[in-house]
Queue: 3 jobs
Job 1
Amino acid sequence: MLDKLKSMALRYEDLEAQLSDPGVYGDAAKLRSINRELKELGPVVEAYRAYEKAEEERAQAEWLLHDPDFRDLAREELEQAKEEMERLREELKILLLPRDPNDERSVIMELRGGVGGEEGALFAHSLLRMYTMYAQSKGWKMDIVSLNETELGGVKECSVLIEGEGAFSRLKFESGVHRVQRVPETESGGRIHTSAATVAVLPEAEDVELEIDPRELQIDTYRSSGAGGQHVNKTESAIRITHLPTGLVVECQDERSQYKNKDKAMKVLRSRLLDMEREKQSAATAAARKSQVGSGDRSERIRTYNFPQGRVTDHRIGLTLYKIDAIMDGALDELIDALVTADQAERLKNSEQLLTTQQPGACPIER
């Protein structure tokens, strides 16, 4: 692990050196790539350098323990250095956890009213307002893609696009059933009703990049048929391309040139394969959305918003906050920070279990 940290620090220094080269600024793509990598490596390298500094202070304090005049001061500094090293060890463990590749993507968020009829739809509208205000506080751009409202202004179904740095990393924990307990505006008797709304959070799909392996293609040539004079009967200019993994077959005989026919056939094949990939991606997204949304039943809840008691409880981590008004106005960071911390703790636990299984007694950061 120490070797990995050293390697990351050297890479960071190399990237900084590249930025000092004026020629880099003429290549926008390369400049973006360097800045993106610097941003990713920055927190790790900063923590690693702080760890090395604390280790130097520990070594110096241990050396001073042999001097009677500085022994008491050295003990104090030694204890402080050890505490700082332990803190930085834990920080580095978290920073080195594998990142979710979708974390920096923008978000497609879908909301719909669940059980409770009109009240469930009205609560979905309240959630839409909450996420809108949260996105604004983060400086993200939010656009409503589709909206199906009830007569009273509730949300039957809604799809929004939220664009901004790290949007998915923060909002991915919002997927699930949100339960509300409050007196509906339509309730004349003042009774508390329990309703629900569902939220699905998906990373925005990137453009599909398609590469075709030539070894997966069977290319046959044959004589063109139909009108075309003597050329049709004498040369094998027509092309048939079969994509072996999918069985897709594309033929082209429009041109007299075999090369041109092949080029056209490849364009058609590429387009069809790309369309298949998009359909497959859409099916996977639909399946993910369905698994996140669930049935809208109250028993699947991830969070409860109790208005009479002024509390919001996240059932996944057992956290209750008595600040429902602020939360409904978009103050979600305290909730989301707790969920992020819990997620990191779980992943850290899993990674340490794996490390223990592979290398009993190994320490993640140890000289």
Job 2
Amino acid sequence: MSSVLNTVYNNYLTAYTPKTLTRYDTHKKSELRNVYNSIVKLNKEAPWYLPTTNKDTQQYAVDIKENARQLHNTIAQLGGLEEDGLFNKKSAYSSDENIVTASYVGPQTPENEIPSIEMEVRSLATSQENLGLFLPDAKTALAPDTYSFDVSINDMNYEFQFSIGESETNRDVQERLIRLINNSGIGIHADLAEAEGKTALRLTSEATGLSQGKSRLFHVSDDKTSKRTGTVEYFGLDYISRQASNASILVNGEEHSPSSNHFTVGKLFEVELNGLTEEGNPVTLGLKTDVESLTDNISHLIGGYNDFVKAASSYVETQSKSRQLINEMKGIAGLYSNSLESIGVTLAEDGTMNIDRELLRQSAMQSGDVSETFESLKNLSGMLLKKSNQVSLNPMNYVQKTVVAYKNPGHNYVSPYTTSAYSGMMFNSYC
């Protein structure tokens, strides 16, 4: 059962929610208890519906839930969970974002002035790559049977079993192994390399760099596997064509070797390495001015709102109730449209919002009281936060459903999992 759950979870992460996870995706027991209690309360008088079996509808339900989660996290990252936090969130800058991008993760009210950082990037962290033997697209020389091989990664061992038929070609087997590995979600990506009419399996680790004392990120073998051996040698799966390596950087002249291209510097800046600097020409990281930070925060807020509306709009032709969700979002934005226009934010016909950044900057610079000038945005973010929580809690509210029966008011059984029907949707292919 654990293997089935693991497969379902990996499928969920890769197929439904490839978005970046944040610290706001972790929760205390008390928060999870509140979510459960909210579901129970929501379902107390809710009618019974026929189960949703259409795959497109299932995809839609999970997708709007995940986009609601993303909107919630966007607001949370901007400080929207705290009183006046939306106006105090600081933003970082990079003098060359093609080489290094940065975001500020330090305290919002630092005791001392945050100094700028000079960073030189000499090399990027790389992943491990195994490149197999190039074989012709001819009948495989392996005898028909059930084979297996083991992959060791992150101190875990995974066994892959597969069968080879009588008339299968090398490419047939290679393509099956690609699907098998990629669907497993163990942190290795498989694809097909081609050269001169021949193909080879290429395995690349998702992780980069090496921990101290380690010489590789993953290892492929069939020495102690449970089924027939021979595939590792035949396809050349154990040949390391590129070793994993750490990045090499200078931070204020001091050398460092992070194992990833994504890391934190001094608990102040979250950094992503994108390219290499010229020797003696470092990238400067620092904090933007309060006006620029405020403008960035508002732009991210509006961008998160627009992404959510666009995601719902993509289902208008196939999911009739998605229009209801769009209208509700337009209704929220419309409450503040007049006051928002004066600071450079306008509501478009399709429900999205546009920003005049210059007018927004002028409003911020001329403002005597930021909280008062941008009160409408603060209220908007609060309502969007509530709406995102509501959609995340019950995405099935925006799915066309057939009512089976209404409950007897005051004399019914609690059904706490009705709103979470989308979770069962992901198990359909496995159970």
Job 3
Amino acid sequence: MNEINEFIQQNDFLQQLVAQMSLLEIVVKGLIIGIVASAPMGPVGVLCVQRTLNKGRAYGIVTGCGAAVSDIIYALITGYGLSFIYDFIHNERNLFWLQLCGSIMLLCFGIYTYRTNPAKNTHKVSRNRSNLIHNALTGFFITLSNPLIIFLFLAMFTPLSFMLPDLPFIEQAIGYLSILGGAVLWWLFITYAVNKLRNRFDVRGIWIINRIIGAVVITASFVSVVLLLTGIYSFH
């Protein structure tokens, strides 16, 4: 292994290739985190769907994008909070327990999402086409009012080893922008799907989406727990 590392260090092309692969890994992880953080149909998700149905897709998109900006604030708080325990998380044994706890937290989150009834979050939305900025701000502040999302980010950062504070600023920026990009991609997808299926989309449709998301998160987190406990793979 040492000989391979020395060979890579002596070869500029291989160094660039490894750097690009590492950057791609950061982007992929960031996109996954952004999508998973946005996907569950909480109050903002339901509001986004309702506005898409009642006002048009643009209003649903800006609502989701407002929530995405709030998400990135909490992602930054989580990421830089981890920098204060830098030495702790870079100990392999400690990192193992953090990854295991994170996977278990994610499993609980998946179960909660699967069992949540989104009908409880529905409410009448006016058809008045209010200002787009107003719609974005409501999405932002509704999400910002729920600091518990920090625990969701923590549950995803540790199993994926998304520890950015020890990386160069450019790579950190790309990582956090990837989270934002993943969130925006989700809102673009969900508003597109709702807009296309508007005649057949109702509360049951939201409930089905919640169930699918919950099942995916449960499966992924369960697999990560098994892999960690068996020592087959560690996420770093």
